[in-house]
């Protein structure tokens, strides 16, 4: 759970901190276009997070098994985000890049549902310590990733390897999310 959340935060914090610079430097967007694109991309993420939660609840209510629902939702959304970000690395058209990033953020934000895991996996007695520990791991990555991306961009002179880093982290999110047993423990 901690590793999956760290991978999720790597992608999210990385895009949050470096995407505007990437759009400006790699695609020559001016500040107005960059602001509009960033708003649109993160609005898609906001909508995606709500939609993903709604789909998971409906699927479970219809009889979906917790492992099937959550593994499918997390792995599927991470796979789509990884493919979109990989396509961004090879695309030069700014409008296509913005569209791909909108799709990537829509799906990667489904993983905001990671916040339900401490209560599911630890019950009431351990939800706080699991949630706090998960948040600690995620925020440590949130500190490290922007610095790492800056170093990658500085030393390579491009965003290509930074984008590939996000693809690798989304793949890690897929892997680690598939290893979790999402059945409720019934712990008090």
Describe the protein's architecture and organization.
There is one protein chain. The chain has 188 residues and is mainly α. It has one domain: MFS general substrate transporter like domains (Growth Hormone, Chain: A). 82% of the residues lie in helices and 0% in strands. It contains six helices and no strands. Helix 2 packs parallel to helix 4 and helix 5 (117-156) packs antiparallel against helix 6. The two termini are 20 Å apart. The model has no long low-confidence stretch (mean pLDDT 94).
Short description:
The chain is 82% helix and 0% strand. The protein is an all-alpha fold and 188 residues long.
Break the fold down into its secondary structure elements and pairings.
Blueprint: H1 2-27, H2 31-61, H3 66-89, H4 94-108, H5 117-156, H6 160-178
Helix pairs in contact: 1-2, 1-4, 1-5, 1-6, 2-3, 2-4, 3-4, 3-6, 5-6
Compute the number of helices.
Answer: 6
Integer tally of domains: 1
* Helix proportion range: over 70%
Looking at the structure, what is the overall shape?
globular
**How many strand units?**
0
Please tell me the CATH architecture by its name: Up-down Bundle
Whole-number radius of gyration?
A: 17 Å
Low-confidence parts: none
Name the average pLDDT: 94
Helix-strand pattern? HHHHHH
CATH class (first level) name: Mainly Alpha
Structural class: mainly alpha
End-to-end distance: 20 Å
Biggest β-sheet: count, sense, barrel? none
In the CATH hierarchy, the third-tier topology is known as Growth Hormone, Chain: A
Q: Strand share of the residues?
A: under 5%
The CATH homologous superfamily is called MFS general substrate transporter like domains
């Amino acid at each position: 759970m901690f590793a999956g959340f760290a991978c999720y935060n790597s992608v999210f914090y990385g895009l949050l901190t470096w995407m505007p610079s990437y759009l400006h430097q790699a695609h020559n967007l001016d500040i107005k276009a960059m602001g509009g694109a960033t708003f649109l991309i993160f609005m898609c993420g906001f909508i995606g997070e709500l939609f993903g939660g709604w789909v998971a609840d409906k699927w479970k209510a219809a009889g979906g098994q917790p492992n099937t629902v959550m593994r499918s939702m997390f792995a599927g959304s991470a796979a789509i985000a990884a493919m979109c970000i990989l396509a961004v690395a090879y695309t030069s058209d700014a409008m296509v890049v913005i569209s791909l990033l909108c799709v990537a953020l829509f799906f990667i934000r489904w993983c905001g549902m990671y916040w339900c895991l401490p209560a599911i996996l630890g019950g009431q007695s351990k939800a706080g310590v699991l949630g706090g520990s998960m948040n600690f791991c995620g925020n440590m990555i949130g500190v490290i990733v922007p610095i790492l991306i800056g170093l990658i961009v500085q030393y390579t002179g491009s965003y290509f390897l930074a984008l590939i880093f996000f693809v690798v982290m989304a793949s890690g999110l897929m892997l680690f999310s598939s290893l979790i047993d999402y059945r409720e423990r019934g712990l008090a």
